[in-house]
TrEMBL record:
One Pfam family this sequence matches: Lipase_GDSL
Protein name: Zinc finger protein
Entry's Gene Ontology molecular function annotations: hydrolase activity, acting on ester bonds
Species of the source: Solanum commersonii
Matches recorded under InterPro entries: GDSL, GDSL_Est/Lipase, SGNH_hydro_sf, SGNH_plant_lipase-like
Length: 373
């Protein structure tokens, strides 16, 4: 009988030790922090898979180079990892941020980061309505509000607040669709352009974004990276539909992006002063991508105009990437994967600059410095 009792005691001690070790391992993992990602198709990791929408990337050959899925499509709008994926790896985070709408985005998974981004989404709720369904920035922040309450339940209020304020980075990549699939959209946006000048539209965008960032701050976000709008006039889609030459870009689209970008930078400077304890890092995506487009050969690319995967026109820029698309064999030699989105090879260069790069691309600090703040 004594031996049996001893045996039970040993087993109990083993179980308790294993539970303690498991909890330590989980807490060790949390030491690397989390990424909470908001935005559009540049960083969507699969949310649109769960929506009835015309904007989807869960079809081959999207994801053909995404090792984590064995080359199967996941809903990422590129051939491999997004900028958000690569940045998370570079910050030492052990897991990719899980799409909010995915069934496995529950329990402790949310402590490793959540991705709320949605293809077609914008700052304005009306942006992307051409796709039927998408998550606007307002809805993405609403969803984070739900996550925020779950984090309280998992960690307790005090630890949750510390984790979000000190260990979590809030990444916002949004705004392109507000121009491409709202203000500049042929036919559908004519009314808006008659009733609202570019200045007034940009005013509107920035006041909405300011409110969204302030909501996140009130939910304990403190470390932000906000990307500006890239050179949307130079993407294969715009070059193709406007029948431009290889070295030309659509002037109006780029002019609007630059106008918005200058004012976004000023707004982030203001928020750094106004919101106590917050750090807003500005990512100059426009200049970063323009550098790749202008000097593509310097980075080992063979083209910065033609989509690797797509159809239509001289830059394969009209029909999105899908099973019937033509696809290049040298995917890492193309700046653009499809008519709209960079390839993984381009994303790697962009992410490296964000992680440890030049102040002209990322300021007032890079992402590794923001993590260690």
């Amino acid at each position: 009988m004594a031996m049996t009792n001893n045996y039970v005691l040993v087993v109990l001690l083993l179980v308790i030790n294993l539970m303690v070790l498991a909890n330590c391992a989980i807490d060790d993992d949390l030491g690397f922090g989390a990424s909470y990602i908001f935005g559009d198709s540049l960083v969507d990791a699969g949310n649109n898979n769960y929506l009835q929408t015309l904007s989807k990337a869960n079809i081959a050959p999207n994801g053909i180079d995404f090792k984590a899925s064995g080359g199967n499509p996941t809903g990422r709008y590129t051939n491999g990892r997004t900028i958000g994926d690569i940045v998370g790896e570079g910050l030492g985070q052990p897991h990719y941020a899980t799409p909010y709408l995915a069934p496995n985005c529950t329990g402790r998974t949310i402590l490793y980061g959540v991705n709320y981004a949605s293809g077609g989404g914008g700052i304005m709720n009306g942006t992307g309505r051409v796709f039927v369904n998408r998550l606007s920035m307002d809805i993405q922040v609403d969803y984070f509000n739900i996550t925020r309450k779950e984090i309280d339940k998992l960690l307790g209020q005090s630890k949750a607040r510390d984790y979000l304020r000190n260990k979590s980075i809030f990444s916002i990549t949004i705004g392109s669709n507000d121009f491409l699939n709202n203000y500049l959209l042929p036919v559908l946006s004519i009314g808006t352009r008659i009733s609202e000048s570019p200045d007034a539209f940009i005013d509107d965008l920035l006041s909405h974004l300011r409110a969204q960032l302030t909501r996140l701050y009130k939910l304990d976000a403190r470390k932000f990276i906000v990307g500006n709008v890239g050179p949307i006039g130079c993407i294969p889609y715009q070059k193709t539909i406007n029948q431009l030459k290889e070295n030309e870009c659509v002037e109006l689209a780029n002019k609007l992006a630059l106008q918005y970008n200058a004012r976004l930078k000023d707004m982030l400077t203001q928020l750094n002063k106004e919101l106590d304890g917050a750090t807003f890092v500005h990512a100059n995506v426009f200049d970063l991508v323009m550098e790749l487009i202008t000097n593509y050969d310097k980075y080992g690319f063979v083209t910065a105009t033609k989509a690797c995967c797509g159809n239509g026109g001289q830059f394969a820029g009209i029909i999105p990437c899908g099973p019937t698309s033509s696809m290049c064999s040298d995917r890492d030699k193309h700046v653009f994967w499809d008519p709209y989105h960079p390839s993984e090879a381009a994303n790697l260069i962009i992410a490296k600059q964000l992680l440890e790069g030049d102040p002209k691309y990322i300021s007032p600090m890079n992402l590794k410095q923001l993590r260690d703040l």
